[in-house]
Design a protein that fits this description.
Blueprint lengths: L4 H15 L5 E4 L1 E3 L11 E14 L3 E12 L9 E7 L11 H18 L8 E4 L3 E7 L2 E4 L3 E2 L9 E6 L6 E2 L12 H13 L4 E4 L2 E5 L2 E5 L2 E4 L10 H10 L5 H5 L25 H9 L3 H40 L9 H31 L2
Parallel strand pairs: 6-14
Antiparallel strand pairs: 1-8, 2-3, 2-7, 3-4, 4-5, 5-10, 7-10, 8-9, 11-13, 12-15, 13-14
Length: 375
C-alpha cells in the first residue's frame, strides 16, 4: 500500500538530481516505506538516511541520523525534521522478528512511566518513553551504477528498521540491564525499583537511556526483565532482575514512595553497556529456565502473602462497615429507648380511641330502648 512505484521513482529521481555523479553513477540514501503504525500525531511517515549519517551503535544496534521526508496523509508535522533510524546488527538479526518484541517493550515501558508519573513525590520531573515506529525498507542506499544497479547496498540483510525522533542534547545511560547505575539520577533508579515492586516482582524496567530536557527525562531503548522472558534478547529474566538489585542502593525517593528496602548484597557491575540473553553463562541460563533464582522467588512469595493479608484486611474492614451500616439502617426504622412511649402515654392514647366508641355504642342502646318503650 505504502511502497508504490510512484513514491520510489519520486525519491529516486530526487536523490539522483541532488547527488548526480556524471561519470558512472551515484550514492543514494536508504528510503523506507511508510511506517507500519500511525505516529502519536495521527500520521504515517517515511524516512531517509545514508551510511555516512551513522551516529552511534550499541551491542546489538546501529543508529543513523535521518530525516522524515513524507507523511500520509500529507501535512504531517514531523516532515523535514530529524529522526534516528536503527538497524539490528547483522549477526543478531535472527533474534528479532520485525522488531515486535522491541515495540511491545516500549509500549509497556510507556505505560509504566505514565503510572509512575502520577505517584505523589517531591521530585516533580516526569519520565517520557518514546515508542519507535517500524518501517520496511523501500530502497536500499548504496552506490547505484548508471543510477540503476546498486552494486554496494547498505544493510542488505535487513528488511525492517525502527524510526524515532532525534533527541538533541546530552545523551546519557542512566542505568543498564546488568546492574550498572548512574548515582546522579535517583529518580530513574527509584523508577526501575518501583516497576519491580509494583508488578509483584514479575517485571523490572531498566537500561534507561536518553536525554534530560527541562523537567522531563526523554527515554529510548529501555529493557524489561520479565519472569517469562518475553521481551526480546535484552530480557535476562530473573537473572537480570538480580543483577539490577545487586547494583541498586535505595535512595530518598525509594523511601518516599514506600518501596521496601533492597536487602540484596551490593555488587554493582564493573562494565557498562547492555547485555544480551545469548551472553549469559550456562549456569545463568539454567537458573532462568528452571526459575531457580531463590532470592527473587522468595520476594514473589512474600509479595503474594502481603497481597493475601491485604485482601483479608480489606474483607474484614468491608464486613465491619456493613455491620455499621446495618445498625444504622435498623436504628432508622426502630425507635430508640428514649423515644419509646411510656405506659401513661399508651393509656391516654388508648382512652382517646376507646371512649368515643363506648359513647357511640351507649347512645345507640339508649336510642333503641326508647323506641321499644313507645306504645
Amino acid at each position: 500500500m505504502f511502497c508504490g512505484n510512484v513514491f520510489f521513482w519520486h525519491h529516486f529521481r530526487e536523490d539522483v538530481d541532488r547527488k548526480k555523479d556524471k561519470a558512472m553513477g551515484s550514492n543514494l540514501s536508504t528510503l523506507t516505506c511508510f511506517t507500519r503504525d500511525r505516529d502519536t500525531d495521527g500520521y504515517y511517515y517515511k524516512a531517509k538516511f545514508s551510511e555516512d549519517g551513522k551516529i552511534g551503535e550499541g551491542g546489538c544496534r546501529e543508529a543513523y541520523r535521518g530525516r522524515y521526508v513524507e507523511s500520509s496523509p500529507p501535512g504531517g508535522p514531523k516532515v523535514g525534521t530529524q529522526c534516528v533510524v536503527k538497524f539490528i546488527k547483522k549477526k543478531y538479526v535472527r533474534y528479532f522478528e520485525e522488531w515486535d518484541p522491541d515495540v511491545i517493550t516500549h509500549r509497556r515501558a510507556k505505560k509504566m512511566a505514565d503510572m509512575f508519573n502520577s505517584v505523589p513525590k517531591s521530585d516533580s520531573r516526569t519520565v517520557q518513553v518514546f515508542i519507535p515506529a517500524i518501517a520496511e525498507i523501500q530502497r536500499r542506499g548504496g552506490f547505484y551504477l548508471l543510477f540503476l544497479f546498486n552494486v554496494a547496498p547498505m544493510g542488505k540483510e535487513h528488511k525492517y528498521v525502527s524510526i524515532e525522533p532525534y533527541l538533541s542534547g546530552d545523551y546519557k545511560k542512566f542505568n543498564d540491564n546488568k546492574g550498572g547505575t548512574d548515582k546522579h539520577s535517583p529518580l530513574l533508579q527509584a523508577f526501575s525499583h518501583w516497576t519491580f515492586y509494583k508488578s509483584a516482582y514479575k517485571y523490572l524496567l531498566c537500561d534507561l537511556q536518553g536525554v534530560q530536557r527541562g523537567n522531563e527525562y526523554l527515554i529510548t531503548d529501555p529493557c524489561i526483565h520479565s519472569e517469562k522472558r518475553i521481551h526480546g534478547p535484552t530480557d535476562l529474566g530473573d537473572v537480570g532482575m538480580l543483577k539490577f538489585l545487586r547494583g541498586h542502593k535505595c535512595n530518598s525517593i525509594c523511601k518516599e514512595i514506600a518501596l521496601p528496602n533492597n536487602t540484596v548484597e551490593y555488587k554493582p557491575s564493573t562494565s557498562s553497556g547492555s547485555m544480551y540473553s545469548f551472553q549469559l553463562t550456562e549456569e545463568e541460563v539454567r537458573q532462568n529456565v528452571e526459575m531457580d533464582v531463590s532470592i527473587i522467588n522468595r520476594m514473589r512469595e512474600q509479595r503474594i502473602e502481603e497481597k493475601k493479608l491485604k485482601h483479608v484486611k480489606e474483607q474484614e474492614q468491608r464486613l465491619e462497615e456493613e455491620k455499621i451500616n446495618d445498625v444504622k439502617e435498623f436504628e432508622e426504622v426502630t425507635p430508640s429507648k428514649s423515644h419509646r412511649p411510656l405506659p401513661l402515654d399508651i393509656g391516654i392514647a388508648t382512652a382517646g380511641f376507646v371512649l368515643p366508641v363506648v359513647l357511640h355504642l351507649g347512645l345507640n342502646i339508649l336510642s333503641n330502648g326508647r323506641r321499644r318503650d313507645r306504645p
